[in-house]
Amino acid sequence: MGTNGNAQATNARLNPPTRLTGAEILWATLAGEGVDTVFGYPGGAILPAYDALRKFPIRHVLVRHEQCAAHMADGYARASGKVGVAIATSGPGATNLVTGIATAMLDSVPIVCITGNVSSKVLGTDAFQEVDITGITLPVTKHNFLVNKTDDFAQAIRHAFQIARCGRPGPVLVDITKDAQQGSAIFDFEAAKPRAYRPHPMLRVEESGLDQAAELIRNAKRPVILAGHGVMESGAMEQVRALAERAQIPVGLTLLGLGGFPASHPLSLGMMGMHGEAWVNHAIQESDLLIACGMRFDDRVTGTLSSYALKAKKIHIEIDPAEVNKNVKVDVALVGDLRQVLEDLLPRVSGRDGSAWLKTIEASKGVVAVRDIKNLPDSGHLYAAHVMHDLWRITGGDAVVVTDVGQHQMWEAQYFHHEKPRTLITSGGLGTMGFALPAAIGVKFACPEKDVWVVAGDGGFQMTAAELATIVQEKLKINIAIINNGYLGMVRQWQEFFYERNYEATPLVSPDFVKLADAHGIPGRTVRTRAEVAEAVNQARSAPGAFLLNFLVEKEESVYPMIPAGSALHEMIRRPGRWGKDPLEESADE
Amino acid sequence: MLHTFVAYVEDLPGVLTRVASLFRRLNININSLTVGRSERAGLSRLTLVCEASAEAGHRIRASLFKLENIVDVDDIAQAPAVTRELALIKVAATPQNRSQLFDLVEVFRARIVDLTSESLIIEMTGVESKIEGLLEILREDEGRILEICRSGKMTMRRGHHLSSVLRAMGAGETETVEPGGNETQEEGLPSALE
Q: Do B59 and A322 touch (CB under 8 A)?
């Protein structure tokens, strides 16, 4: 991205320390932190900052709604590993950011949000477009600042970047008053450098813990590695792989862990949890040792805790001490940076024969695979699972897929096999519908050379569809696949299974998405049969600009397997089919 | 169980909100919270008492440490510590019945810090149970207590305890708290008044 070049150039220009306005200090500090793209929306309280923007080598992307600015910064950060930046004005501009900030918080994504606020002399008086945004965002940020002195700008912003990216990453908001943007101060980028980051004082990786972990691994008969988002955040892909290969341990992945371990690897089990593959969940329930790497035993991966992996000892490698023993009591806690802990653990782990356990898992895979929808003959109907499978096949998996939230998200996770980290961008913790389209814009800025695909349902897509205009304004090549089933599909599925098919408020009337795209100047086409899928995907890929595919899929298809809320991990609802079984029957027998 | 956290926090606007918000989010009621200046410039020391499960202690302390403005957190738990609370109690007292209160104050080693023709103020420092003892006696006469103002608990570990702040700043670990040795009774307290 040439980020550093830009940053250095800017710094060089501003060296020695120079007197600048607060607005100029804002941009100079951002540039100094390596920022070359920001996502924002102007307004009264942030206008001084916008007025100074043209003097700095920073590209501003005008969004259509501030929530999307936060999602774009989030997508940018997830795809690049760098800090994403969103900018908004005071009041409604700031409150619109909140969903995006919470999304980043729940998934530990480093973003910095800058909001303007009213002048310091009217703070707290309910002035026009004034809102207490530091108060509002307190529980959904890692930290936030209210800055009302120009002198404090550079330091606060640099500190915000440090907090966002260090330790367990997360969102930071800096609220800057209008008068402080207009005031002036001496800008000294180096002097504004924050103190060295204080690691969490409860981080603890003891020799004895490492020895104990190695001992558990040596003696385990049925071990499973559970790999989560921390693998990416820590950059521990190689170390996880080395541990798996050396000790012949199969690897299950969380939704956000997908891509952290190659899907094609013989030891890869795929996704675990509520919509995870049956063999993964069975393996976890049968396991005698779970090695949790950068994951937090979220309720979507454990099912009911009282019946979760009861036969297994647990090793938890985690950077956040507050996550240890939160949901699942563990036997060995190695509280530190995953990559570093694995580096320390690996020399203690020797090769072991895992073939019997792997053979057991392989056998259960075989039984399940025959009922997999992708192996069913073409009935003339279009299934979302087929679309995802074909998209994976045609792109060769060489794409960054940005999903929304719901059924299509789970089908993507099941049928698009991710080999590399940061190739699946999705809202896991908060489950934010409307995430995909704006996040994909951020992703495209982070990796312009990559084939970026939005995969969204007809419901979620309409939440943020206005960002189509942003794609056009910024001339971005983004491919959009709408998985259109005329329902809020995942909610409908819950109604089908748990609310006696009372489809209340889930049937959904949508615009003609192809016409909607056309109104924005984006070409598109509707796909109705599986036979058309390959050609359509190729057409989208070869189009010079953005392209929208509207896949009209089977309306009342459900995601299988599914663990009902409150059930054990092995109590899965399985796909009904010609084998004539009741779909609600659990399949522990397999 | 009752948890007592002692924390050093930056003396800045909004820091108390961050601390309180953490407990609010966990739906834990704060029994008492005392904040004041510490031995280090720019740092306030707070003592926070709350009721939560035994396992919650670890997570609360870990979560407090995640707040950027918190410099150090100590979970006093069952460690040997000195705990005190200050109470100001305004009591209705006429020249006729004052002398009885003077005797009471003497027994409890409290002080009278204000005296008017209708009322007097008792200042009392001690462990919670001792203050409760005095209040219990005062309540024997209905309507006598006019106002009560209590500071909440302040706690300090016993012994040659290196400043937590120094350790936190100079990198190093807080040692694990040894269970047992609970010491909150003030010496010389008449057992009948506990």
A: yes
